[in-house]
């Protein structure tokens, strides 16, 4: 009977140890990492690659974060960023000088930012977190980044320069056209008003003055001769009007 009882105890111990061995990994496999499945950005943008984790153990100095990148064209992933108590950005390579640590481990944040994104950055980014003793579960998460060319944008300064190049020449051309519309008329009128000394306008030979012309005042001699011959002598009066103009002082002396 004693041997039977001892055998049962041994079997129970073995079963208990087996159960503990099976359950032990599940007790420490509580870490979970999550990140957006897709991220879209434009060329030249600063891209935030988010990564959050939960763990039953409080993050300590033993906690590590690794970011790796696999190009869109394929190939093995390459680790480019490491965190362990402090950040270790890539000293060389594609991401040199373009990675900033944005995480706060105490809050379960292991995010980074990618500065000045390029089309060559397209691919899959993997965030891996280890926080001993939580080393099982889902310690990794993947994000597919898609960078597209930036759409051209018009700035206010560009619009101002464009308007200046269009409006100023247009205004100058308009002023020139308006000037040409009025200047020929003015020149034409001036050419009509100017006459050479030998020209005789129509009607002057008959004593008819054109509109706007200055009529020469009659001198004393003219008035005297008119009084002598009489106002009814139209022929003599006509001849007097055709006489060339004389100096007024000389006419007075003749009278």
UniProtKB/TrEMBL annotation:
Domain Ig-like span(s) in chain numbering: 25-146
Membrane topology, as annotated: Single-pass type I membrane protein
Gene3D superfamilies tied to this protein: Immunoglobulins (2.60.40.10)
SUPFAM superfamilies per record: Immunoglobulin
TM spans (from-to): 159-182
Keyword Methyltransferase in annotation: no
Principal location listed in the UniProt entry: membrane
Stretch forming the signal peptide: 1-30
Pfam families: V-set
Record localization: Membrane
Entry's Gene Ontology cellular component terms: plasma membrane
Record's keyword terms, sorted: Disulfide bond, Glycoprotein, Immunoglobulin domain, Membrane, Signal, Transmembrane, Transmembrane helix
Superkingdom of this protein's organism: Eukaryota
Protein name: Myelin protein zero like 3
């Amino acid at each position: 009977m004693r041997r039977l009882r001892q055998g049962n105890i041994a079997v129970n111990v073995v079963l208990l140890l087996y159960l503990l061995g099976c359950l032990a990994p599940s007790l420490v496999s509580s870490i979970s990492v999550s990140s957006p499945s897709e991220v879209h950005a434009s060329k030249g943008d600063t891209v935030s690659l988010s990564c959050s984790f939960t763990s039953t153990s409080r993050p300590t100095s033993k906690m590590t974060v690794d970011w790796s990148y696999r190009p869109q064209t394929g190939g093995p992933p390459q680790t480019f960023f490491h965190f362990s108590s402090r950040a270790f950005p890539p000293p060389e390579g594609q991401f040199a000088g373009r990675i900033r640590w944005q995480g706060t481990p105490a809050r379960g944040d292991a995010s980074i930012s990618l500065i000045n994104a390029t089309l060559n950055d397209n691919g899959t980014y993997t965030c891996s977190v280890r926080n001993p003793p939580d080393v099982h579960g889902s310690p990794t998460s993947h994000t597919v980044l898609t960078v597209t060319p930036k759409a051209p944008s018009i700035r206010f300064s560009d619009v101002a320069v464009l308007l200046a190049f269009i409006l100023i020449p247009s205004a100058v051309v308009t002023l020139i056209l308006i000037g040409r519309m009025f200047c020929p008329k003015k020149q034409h009128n001036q050419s009509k008003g100017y006459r050479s000394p030998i020209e005789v306008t129509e009607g002057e030979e008959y004593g008819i003055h054109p509109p706007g012309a200055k009529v020469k005042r009659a001198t004393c001699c003219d008035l005297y001769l008119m009084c002598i011959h009489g106002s009814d002598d139209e022929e003599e009066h006509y001849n007097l009007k055709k006489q060339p103009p004389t100096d007024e002082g000389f006419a007075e002396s003749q009278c």
